[in-house]
Specification:
By secondary structure, this protein is of the alpha/beta class. It has helices spanning 7-12, 18-30, 33-40, 57-61, 78-90, 126-139, 157-171, 185-194; strands spanning 48-51, 71-75, 96-100, 114-118, 146-151, 197-203, 212-219. Bound molecules: S-adenosylmethionine.
Length: 226
Amino acid sequence: MNPSPAAADIARAFLPHRYHYWYARSKLASDPLYGGVRQALAGCRNPLLDLGCGIGLLAHAVPGLGSDIDYVGVDNDADKIASARSAAQRAGLLRVRFEVVDLATQFPADHRGSVTILDMLQFLTPAARTALLTRVAACLAPDGRLVIRSGLADGNWRSRVTRGADHLACGLGWMNAAPRTYPTRAGLAAELAALGLDSDIRPLWGRTPFNNWLVRAWRRPGHAPA
Ligand SMILES: C[S@@+](CC[C@H](N)C(=O)[O-])C[C@H]1O[C@@H](n2cnc3c(N)ncnc32)[C@H](O)[C@@H]1O
């Protein structure tokens, strides 16, 4: 696999937007998210759909995405999508597309491959989350992967810090919505199993105080999507 591009090089693609430049630098330097997703997607050549993509950092952080492998990122924040488009263009990522989509009510058409949902499930109601995961399961290729990172409702101090930080991000205007609910570990695993997906779930908080977990899921052999 190609070496991961340096955080500073990735962040430069977001200039002249100073806030997104510093956000990208600090996020890449401090959060184990993208390393975890790189590992979870290793060897996977399927087109990737990134749900709640924000400014599209993932497309820059996983070597091959957007150059050898098609990447589509969707988010309901039009400003972030605009920033994602111009940064990808500046970075020379030609096989990317970004669209404004409200995942509470819509789902991008015609995807078949792998899917990532990173730090966005908490913005959906339980019913919208179930509807989204059902659509996701149906578009996973037989050898596709679903990679989720999510805070989980554990009732511990990490859960409280995670919820508090999400409310703060909304209060400061970094996020366009407050969190609604966090899934439980058992609930999420059961929901994926009911959709015909096998999964494993492990902590991915690194040195951060958040209750972030990485979920890898794939179609159970012999199980056709609904
Ligand atoms: C914490 S950010 C994560 C961004 C990106 N996945 C990452 O990890 O770098 C959560 C993202 O989910 C998006 N989001 C929240 N509710 C959404 C919805 N209903 N439809 C689409 N995107 C949504 C927000 O706009 C935001 O960009």
